[in-house]
Amino acid sequence: MTIEPLKLSWMGEQAILCDTGHAAIDLKLQERFWALAEQLKGRAFVREVVPGMNNLLVMIDPAAIGEAEALKDIETCWNGLRVYSVAGREIEVPVHYGGEHGIDLGHVAEVVGLSPEDYVRRHSEGRYTVFNLGSQPGFGYLAGLDLSLAVPRRKMPRTRVEAGSVVIGGAQAGVISKTSPSGWHIIGKTDLRFFDPAASSPALLAPGDVIRFCIESLKP
In the record, what terms sit under GO molecular function (predicted)? Predict the structure, then answer.
């Protein structure tokens, strides 16, 4: 893989955003950012690393290092990385598609020119890699959606979407982890709990995990 130049941008005085300006969702590039995060965790000046979608936010202690030195250290790490694959878990997510559980299924299928049955079949045949967690506790940003299923997000977000809702937003799939407003389209629902604050590991997902959606039921 060709090493893309790293773009470093200050986000205030205590955070540096690392990205490459690469527009397309790229698993190999994401793996490189995961590797960068692991390398930087051991640095004395690094307080926290937060993986994003093909980027990384590095929270630093400005009293521990100068600005120029911090940027140089991160860039040196990037150029010397050995890229690795995260050995994530494979998680099966049973889904009740359509009907009262997936009120937008008919609409999104019509938009892309498929029957609801074909839309669900293609959605359930995919393998979705968790790139990062964000937006709400336990919500995984997933790569791997068949682009023939992509539909722009709703112009008017709903004020309440139930936890467990299986959703589509643009070229991404996801599962709402906490009841909240959302502009993503609801195509189904799962009983699997993606965020449990009382659990020893509250979030079900972690970067590198792979999700497979399984058809539990289908109502066109």
Answer: ATP binding; hydrolase activity
Name the nearest CA neighbour of 27 among 151, 123, 127, 125.
127
In angstroms, the CA 165 to CA 192 distance is: 10
Provide the domain limits for residue 142: 90-219
Long-range contacts of 3-10, Cβ-Cβ distance < 8 Å, separation of 24 or more: 3/78, 3/79, 4/29, 6/74, 6/75, 6/78, 6/79, 8/71, 8/74, 8/75, 10/67
Tell which of 32, 54, 79 closes a domain.
Answer: 79
Closest CA to 203 of 192, 189, 215, 191: 192
Using an 8 Å Cβ cutoff, are 192 and 204 in contact? Answer: yes
pLDDT tens digits along 193-212? 999 999 999 999 999 999 99
pTM of the full structure: 0.86
Nearest one of 117, 129, 126, 124 to 146, comparing CA atoms: 126
Query: Please, is 17 exposed, middle or buried when counting C-beta atoms within 10 Å of its C-beta (0-12, 13-18, 19+)?
Result: middle
Cα separations in angstroms, 110 against 97, 107, 154, 161, 174 = 15, 5, 15, 22, 20
**Token couple for 106:** 């008919």
Tokens 């938009």, residue located? 111
Closest CA to 97 of 108, 86, 81, 89: 108
Both 139 and 202 in a single domain?
yes
**In terms of DSSP bridges, do strands 185-189 and 90-98 run parallel, antiparallel, or are they unpaired?**
antiparallel
Identity (one letter) of the amino acid at 179? T
**Number of domains comprising the chain:** 2
What confidence tens digit (pLDDT) does each residue in 29-38 have? 999 999 999 9
